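ok so I'm stuck.
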Amino acid sequence: MPVEGEIGLIGLGVMGQNLALNMSDHGFRVVVHNRTPEVTDDYLAGAAAGTTITGAHTPADLVAALGTPRRILLMVKAGPPVDAVIESLVPFLDAGDVIIDGGNSHYTDTIGRTRDLEAAGLLFVGAGISGGEEGARHGPSIMPGGSPAAWPLVAAILQAIAAKTRDGTPCCDWVGPDGAGHYVKMVHNGIEYGDIQLLAEAYHLMHGGLGMTHGEMADVFAAWNRGRLESYLVEIAADVMRHRDEGEPLLEKILDAAGQKGTGRWTVESALDHGIPVTLVAEAVFARAISALVAERAEASALLGGPPSRIDTDRDTALADLEAALYASKIISYTQGFMLLGAASADRAWGIDLGAIAMMWREGCIIRAAFLERIRDAFHANPQPTTMLLDPYFSQVVAGAQPGWRRTVAAAVSAGIPVPAYSSALGFYDSYRSARLPANLIQALRDYFGAHTYERIDRPRGEFFHTDWTGHGGDVAAGSYNA
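replied:
not stuck anymore, here's the structure
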């Protein structure tokens, strides 16, 4: 009798292939399947040769090869392909079997799939997985949510293959019910958009503004990675700067039109739904959108004038200011991301442990960074803070970074170098620390043209008023609502 598989995996793209090898390395018997049988056969004869990984040419064969309760990880494209694979599996599964979606599915899809599969007696896990090809092979960050009853059945496998922090803690733990896992992964990707945009703007300031060579910029990024900015993205930015193509920096041969797959936009859309000002991610998404207007920008560059894109200041001073601006802006970006996670968790009763999420991102994932430990500490010291920005460490760091941060933004504006991420981060900080904002004029104007009403500072919150601004509008109001 053949040995029963412990977990099935469907979808042999690069991520699926590497996750299967990772699970096999950790002693789990993996059965793989791909829609195209030749892909399965080539994988077994190639990358998986010499391992205990076996293959199945049909969903029915895959299910038959697994011990019960069956656990099947899907690594297929988000959207209808996930539903199609689930539909192909369900007829062969028994009550208590578990389907795990490891792709970048929208969290609302995961909520619906969890509900529908639980109604059929099955269990569903929506697991956000971050780390790219290398992480999948050697240890990603994994953010599982869905059917709570599924966690004891999949925890050993997922935590074994996940990245580990310095004390050996897996960067994988249960996030919460239904769509919580994929929601956390979505916000992770949104923060990733922001981090990358901040680094791109730093490169623009160094190369275009300060006239630095790629080798000089690589040295700066490498030095930053040895300090408080230690992170995977800063580390690989140095590698990118050093890479050569036929003796020239490859970076300068890459078209400046950035792609996106949707998770950043989803983050911004959710932030709008929850009323959370995730401004830096929004600017990062829009920066990619404007980068795509390659032909229009080329035409505009010849017609629309501006100052010379040069920063005339001492280079060492400018770089010290830029380091402060980058660190402060990262703090703002993560502050906004965790504000969104907290709001969504409260709204959907997910019970997300924000400190635990910080440590799930500490290793393995794309945004892994040393200062995530500081975020963990902030949330463990105060599990229900208004924002991590009020934590003593972060408030003091941002206060100390302000002079350099402001000089960096001012220098960029004076030189005509766009820095939407740094600017929006600073704008959020200045707005958040302001006891009074000009929104009173906004409310007055809304009431004037639309009778939308307003509240008064000399009366209790929740009491609304309307003024007859012209003297002939009467006392009729549109009602107290947001518009």
